[in-house]
Design brief:
It is a single chain. This protein is mainly α. It contains 3 helices and no strands. It has a domain at about 50-85. The longest helix is centred in the C-terminal third of the chain and has 16 residues, at about 70-85. The mean pLDDT is about 80.
Length: about 90
């Protein structure tokens, strides 16, 4: 079994150098604008009380391709707009 000497410890920086580095600090962050970024308004879809939501879910379940609810609703709106514009 080969024996090797213990590795030398790295030389530690003097305490004064560490304190000088810490005291140096950094720059102050740039001031940010207090204005909030403009976003497009988002309105959550809320169903009125009644059977409308259940009817929608049943219609989604029987479709050949399972679509997310939002996609299904957008597709229905597009179809209605196309039908009404003729």
């Amino acid at each position: 079994m080969a024996l090797i000497a213990r590795p030398a410890r790295p030389v530690q920086a003097p305490v004064d150098a560490v304190e000088a580095f810490i005291s140096k600090g950094g720059s102050v962050p740039a001031e940010t604008s207090t204005e909030k970024p403009v976003k497009a308004p988002q309105h959550p879809l809320k169903f009125p009380p009644g059977d409308l939501f259940n009817r929608l879910e049943r219609a989604r379940e029987v479709s050949a391709v399972k679509l997310p609810r939002n996609t299904w609703i957008l597709q229905a709106i597009a179809e209605k707009l196309e039908r009404d514009s003729r």
